[in-house]
Specification:
elongated; mainly alpha; 2 helices; about 55 residues
Length: about 55
């Protein structure tokens, strides 16, 4: 399974294709990742700001 929460690379959020919805663990992980989806723009903006400061 890919790393969805890497601040070092592009921030990726889950697509249902990467999870087996017949397994309770994968379903719980998918739903937990979806809870963070509203923060995607915050993470992206912070990454852009960090990139500007470090250049």
């Amino acid at each position: 399974m890919p790393n969805y929460n890497s601040i070092e690379g592009n921030v990726l959020f889950p697509t249902i294709d990467g999870y087996d919805m017949h397994k309770a663990g994968d379903m719980a992980l998918y739903l937990a990742h979806c809870d963070f989806y509203p923060f995607k723009s915050v993470i992206d903006n912070n990454k852009m700001a960090i990139d500007l400061v470090t250049k």
